[in-house]
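fyi for ur records
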Amino acid sequence: MNKHFLKQLVFSSVIAVSLSTAFTPVQATKVPVKYELVSTKDAVKGAIPITLYFGKVISIDFTEVRETITFIASSDKSQFVYNTDLPVESGEAQTAYLLPSKKVDFQGTYQTSHPNLIVKTINSSGESKQYNLIVSFSSDIMASAGIKFVPSNQQSPVDSQKIMVSARQQINADAVEHGLRIAIAKRFINSNDPVVNNVRNFVFLLRNGHSVNDAILATQINPSVIESLGEIYLEAELPFQ
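which gave:
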């Protein structure tokens, strides 16, 4: 059976549940917008999704892991600009700030809907790390203030916010949101389907400190829908992971 048809079947199977358990949209103004905490151990394993919101500055912070930025580069300079709290050359920069911009046509370069940002760091022991961030853009209400990297041995609240999908891949709220956009664009699901609103509320709750289990209970969404969206994202955006 076609894989895409299976995904459509999953969405269709939860429509009745979604209709009977309609969830009132969460008001962003009532909940503090938090940072996503990511351990350095997880971060260097693969690409990290990050969403930039139009008109908002998003930060990538290495203060808690005591790493300084030694190099930063974007694959597509036509859609967002970035800066650091201190010059990279000073050896003391620990935070990068990203801001979406109107598209600019740079001759001789390629544009992509999901550019990546490479950040290299070094700590006091001379250990160097490289972080690869996959950037998406949104005109929605700001749901994440950015990413704070935390030590690998620190118990991170996001452990309860990670979702395991096929091939033992872990995804987060950004991946679910991106998967939903892809599913709508490819018409796996109608944008007016009640389950779409439930997914968006699930993502919002996850980004603002709730665990996966709590978000599922609050939205009454079928976990299979979340897993399918994660797989759609992984197939489309990270085909070589």
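The first helix runs from residue 3 to 13. thats all i got for now
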